[in-house]
Amino acid sequence: MLRHCISPDQKDWVIRLPAVEFAINCARSETTGFAPFFLNNGRIPRSMVWNGNAPSDYAGVRVFAQRMKLALMQAHDCIIAARVRSINNANKGRQPSPYQKDDFVYV
What we know:
Blueprint: H1 2-5, H2 13-26, H3 36-41, H4 59-92
GO molecular function: nucleic acid binding
């Protein structure tokens, strides 16, 4: 998962890791139907980034938040791409079942 979000020279993985971890913990699992954050805390935390363009007393915080927002969006895109790839790979070898409902089979 992380390899899809970092640059080819792999020098920015330290910067991307928190956003990827946050995105994974906010993503709903197909198996359980819940996000890890929800199972641990009973809720999904709000993202710390904001969309407003109001001036801030702390410009560095805004720059950091915008950078994290972009990394989080990229991490979500990577999660979706990985799920699609996984589904496609799993379905490559699948064939329709030769059995119908109420057929007798040996188990």
